[in-house]
């Protein structure tokens, strides 16, 4: 019995890892915006309360912060702020992506 358990353990652990990745993907939304400057793809992870996107060839992961209205994510330097179908990205209080409009899923 012990040998069977030891033999099956790697498969069980791999299954748990796959399940966790599956649940993570279920709780992540991919939003595509068209901004004045260029398109922006943002992944919102509701479980971790994070937003991530690529800017200046860097993957930014921002934590959800306080917001009077809409949703605000920040890392202390960058801010992604969205309200309704619009969004704005700031770097040190300067707008770097403006007039971002959510592109509906097809």
Key terms:
106 residues; alpha+beta; 8-stranded antiparallel barrel; 8 strands
Task: Please explain how this structure is put together.
The chain contains 1 helix and 8 strands, in the order αββββββββ. It has one helix at 2-26, and strands at residues 28-34, 39-45, 50-55, 58-65, 71-74, 78-83, 86-91, 94-102. An 8-stranded antiparallel barrel has the order 1-2-3-4-5-6-7-8. The longest helix is centred in the first third of the chain and has 25 residues, at 2-26. The model is unreliable at 16-26 (pLDDT under 50). InterPro entries: MliC (IPR018660), MliC_sf (IPR036328). Residues 33-94 form the C-type lysozyme inhibitor domain. Pfam families: MliC. This is C-type lysozyme inhibitor.
Structural class, please? alpha+beta
What's the tally of helices? Answer: 1
**Global Rg:** 19 Å
Low-confidence stretches: 16-26
Query: Main sheet: which strands, in order across?
Result: 1-2-3-4-5-6-7-8
**Biggest sheet details:** 8 strands, antiparallel, barrel
Helix-strand sequence: HEEEEEEEE
End-to-end distance, in Å? Answer: 52 Å
The dominant shape is: elongated
Mean pLDDT: 84
Q: Beta fraction of the residues?
A: over 45%
Percentage of residues in helical conformation: 10-25%
Number of strands: 8
Domain C-type lysozyme inhibitor: 33-94
Keywords: Lipoprotein, Membrane, Palmitate, Signal
Pfam families: MliC
Organism: Kosakonia oryzae
